[in-house]
Description:
single chain, alpha/beta, about 45% helix
Amino acid sequence: MNSQSVEQYMAQLGQQARQASRLAAAAQSGVKNCALLEAAVAIEDQASEVAQENSRDLDAGRTAGLDAALLDRLELTADRITAMAEGLRQVAALPDPVGEITNMSFRPSGIQVGHMRVPLGVIGIIYESRPNVTADAAALCLKSGNASILRGGSEALHSNIAVANCIAQGLRAAGLPETLVQVVNTADRAAVGKLLKMPEYVDVIIPRGGKGLIERVMQESSIPVIKHLHGVCHVYIDEQADLEKANAIAYNAKTHRYGVCNAMETLLVAEPVASRVLPELAKRYSAAGVELRGCERTCAILGDITAATAADWDEEYLAPILAIRVVDGIEQAIQHIEQHGSQHTDAIVTEDYGKARKFLREVDSSSVMVNASTRFADGFEYGLGAEIGISTDKLHVRGPVGLEGLTSQKFIVLGDGHIRE
């Protein structure tokens, strides 16, 4: 495709999505659920075809020299294909937020005023590597009454189209237009640029991927963006912490999984307990193969570890590397998080109720936790059923973005011939 034909193609997708979004907003819950359940059956029935298309992408990725981590995210194993189908069924089982009416109250004039939850309209999703995102994103957008335009990475093009074909079968079976879920079928990077410049067709953009992708979207988009740039998450062990709890939480937050945005990247420890908690934690981290980088006071306690540089406090490692800083107390911990955090997820370990409340109130992150691992910052763990990503924005949604996060609210007014005097 040349640049002109890409532009025309993307405009066509936008027009079709805008038209389809009106039908999505009006679709009954049963119809949307039917589409999701039929799509789940299609994925299971065509698992071999999906796997075959995924093999094409994997072969091309190996030839192109993709690293092992990228290839792992790209691969659709039999279990991952089954999980995609199960994910569609789980979304179908979730309550439908569209049309929910809340906060109705009578005003002195006699009218009733309240809120109704409504879809956002057309959602553009730009993502990398993981083809299972195609199913997850399509399901969440459909259930929340939105049309979607999905632009996956070029390395997963055949896989994404195969999954999208299964979604299309589900839509047809439910009597809904296939244009409710459209996958961009070109690897041309110009398609992303055009998608970011179509406010007449697209209402919101959600990027899922590395820092480079999200920075590009932030710089180029003329459409509102729901995103998080990176996850520099902290655990602060207070001097009033239960050290057994602290040990378990700090270990889990770092080592449960490394390449995820809610993994702890910096451990902060109050000076009065640092010499008691750090040696035991260092042994556990060492056994797990975690490289430690510490401040001057940390190095004095632990001895032969790497001295942290200024850059370490701002780093999202996504790897078995941990920065550790000994702080004077909660005030310095909060100051460190404010200066170096990414407003993603931060936790305090303490038995002091007042300090817990202070941390909850003053740490300005999308998830703030007391005596719990940062790894809980997840839509499923929060009871949302599924998530399309985690937002560190303040508008319009913050934290894990589930079905409700893909909707907005409008005021509704009920009267009985009322006129304003």
